[in-house]
Input
Amino acid sequence: MTRSEVALSAPGKVLLAGGYLVLDRDHTGLVFGLDARIHVHVQKLPTSPGVVLSEIIVRSPQFKEAEWSHSTSTQSRNKFVETALAYALSYVCAISDEKIGSSSITIVADTDYYSHPDETGSTSARFIDFHVPITEAHKTGLGSSAALVTAFTAAVLAYYLKKDQLDLDSDLGRRRLHNIAQAAHCAAQGKVGSGFDVAAAVYGSCIYRRFSPSILEGLGEVGSPQFSARLRAVVDDSDPFNKWDMQIDKSNARIPQGLRLLMCDVDCGSETVGLVKKVLGWRKEKPEEASPLWATLQKGNEDLAKELKRLAQTDVQDYRNLKDIVLTIRSLIREMSTKADVPIEPTVQTSLLDACSKVSGVVGGVVPGAGGFDAIALLVEDQALPALQDLLSTYSSTTSADGEPAIGRVRLLSVKQDFRGLKSEATDMYGDWIR
Output
């Protein structure tokens, strides 16, 4: 059974607190969903009368040469698309006896997922043509791969399965989507990450404690004997000795009214894998240094979440304590950066954060997640936006330290916090992007 067409979207994320710590089940991460979304639309593959096709076409029309045919003889050149599709179809085959028909799948991303020069057109448009192959696009660090895998997997499942087989509006359906998206995302990355980005894509803003990596051990490769059955057991959480144990706390992830969580793109993103490898290597080699620092950081992160929630529950707009907590976290991050010899908060990012924090109404900010040269995150009072935009319109960093890249143009992204996770979209909202 297939529906005539479906469209779903998943949000980007910002790990405001808990970078590196979230890799360990003893610690948590405070992650906020963003209103920049990856959208996936699925419909029947248009054909001429009397022509029957059994292939699946995937298009990403905002990029050059981004069309892939999935049939018995063609493999995708995009590992996240290929893996998400393989996992989704394997699960469909495991729970449905119906033949998988052809389909046309279109992926579109909200503008702020990628850095882009002004000449690409008005950035007020929700979707734009980036005029480059996807391999040359500069990500802003909003979690595009997790949002893509989640939205893509959800859309394929919603298209090929009946609602009584998988209801993505139900708690059980969301949990199963979370499980299969985590498995597919880990397979595409070639490693079992913390999963906070997929959790945010499914559930939205939350305090997240990771799942045990052993849950995905023994799943095997797509196409191996009994893979669909093993995948179904993992997704349905049917093994009593290997249960999913992530914790997702949405009630304590809050932003008070009057504050916005904003992102500034510096257009020189980091290779996160390299940073993480070095930090974890330092932690293993020098646990006497790392363990006390991580414990102190965990307390600071918990203090941040509690203070944001306290402010959200009151009408008081006194952010002095919040500002102090952010500064403390930044100080600890810089200490870890120095001890691990990793640019978690690079010098040029420190200068940018300090400059922004001097603007009246800017509470503070961090280099989120694994740090480096991705977009920075700022907590900003509504009335401070014009002054912040004035600063950033002329800001540049022409010098760098220790070989760090210099920051040129800084762009305040139009994204802000969005507490929702996966959601259905109107299928007619994409206009000429769908064909």
User: Anything to note?
Assistant: The chain has ten helices and 14 strands.
